[in-house]
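Minutes, project huddle
Topic: does the predicted pose make sense with zinc ion bound?
PN asked that the exact inputs be recorded in the minutes so nobody has to dig through chat later. Recorded below.
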Amino acid sequence: MSGENTTTKTTVRFHNTLSGETETFVPLKSGVVSMYTCGPTVYDFAHIGNFRTFVFQDVLRRYLKSKGYRVIQVMNLTDVDDRIIQKSAAAGVSIREYTDKYIQAFLDDRRALNLELPEYLARATDHIDDMVKLIQRLTEKGFTYTSEGSTYYRIAKFPEYGKLSKIDVAGMQDGARVDNDRYEKDSARDFALWKAPKTGEHFWETPIGPGRPGWHIECAAMALKFLGETLDIHSGGVDLTFPHHENEIAESEAATGKPFARYWLHAEFLLVDHEKMSKSMGNFATLRELFSHGTKPSSIRFLLASVPYRRQLNFTPESLLGAASSVERLRNFVSRLRTEKFEEGSSAAVAERVEKSMQEFDSGLADDLNTAQALAAIFDLVREANIAMDRGEFRQGDVAAVLGAMEKFDEIFAVLQDDDAEKLGALGIGGGSAAVSDAEVEALVAERQAARKRRDFVASDRLRDELAARGIVLEDSRDGTVRWKRK
Ligand SMILES: [Zn+2]
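Predicted holo structure (tokens), as shared on screen:
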């Protein structure tokens, strides 16, 4: 059968910001992918613009795993920066205490969106020594200078500076410095690796003097520590390309003399009414705000995953409703497959449809993670299988293959499990009667089936009402089986 070859040997292609081209992906070590993904700065709740990137990275790792790779992913948690220092001081707590709360929130939010845990979650403040050592290496090689207690990276010493973001540094004044971690392209300057303490600010006493690390050195040091001198994939939001990723390259390649990351993948912005979502724009939404207004975690995951990562995603209430109904349709389809009884035998047409859809699903994802194409393949399968069922052309022997296809889909998209209410309950949202578990529903449905069997319609109606009150809708089919779904 040809299917076997096409699924295992598909050529996977990613758009590489470094080359500006879509390239065939081949990891450095056969069978293993090392991947560094820039994580959140934990001074507040992450917003859904941030989660667009995190969902993309999750789809990426799940896809690579489905292709048989072992993925080693590192994500940093930036738990020291100007805002954190100011906010923790204002709150009268330590940096650690201040950031613990937002790290926990980040982990809870990740769980709600079915984001797999990276193999390493690294807190910047746990790796100050590694950052200091990397700065010392750069100093030994002549890439740094100090001024007023701070250590700066001299970009004139690194001729390749600008190769990722394609920034033109010709005519830039040597020695012009910037202390801020975040700055615009037109203010490309020597940047701070180590910042001298300001009065009253938290600092670390180290061999290179008292102070604290700049943002870019954090990621470079942790990437080198966990993944070695050259890693396969480095990814983040497109706004990190400059200066953050450009500076990470300058730091690590100057220190090691080796290429830092082989493939750079950048996710586009999430827009709200066609404007970039950001705190300063005031169009900022956290997951929790959306959840408490009744949005299901699965709707958000589906919406964020559905638009290919290099396209801007316009986030609107309508697009969320569309995502909710898509998830509903997929879940109902799986429930129909599992509960309806079909005639014995199998249908060649259905088998062919499954194979075709799976090939399109895989080739979509292999093409720079084109999730829109992959989803279209799945919805074609759902539509055609539903038609075959309605016409009585679907056979019991087709169930396993179609379910298998849906499971393959869910390995990547992870929206089929009907556990939104439980997840919201775990976050302390909704809860109460809404948080009825699947097992409880199954038990009540079985009880009602038993009542119907003994023709006790009073009991069966009472159970139906009880389920309805808890947001569960029943659909009785002609063959006597019953399907349920959450309203
Ligand atoms: Zn980073």
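Observations noted during the meeting:
- Residues 38, 76, 219, 244 surround zinc ion (CB under 6 Å).
- DSSP finds 16 helices and 17 strands in the chain.
No decisions taken; revisit at the next huddle.
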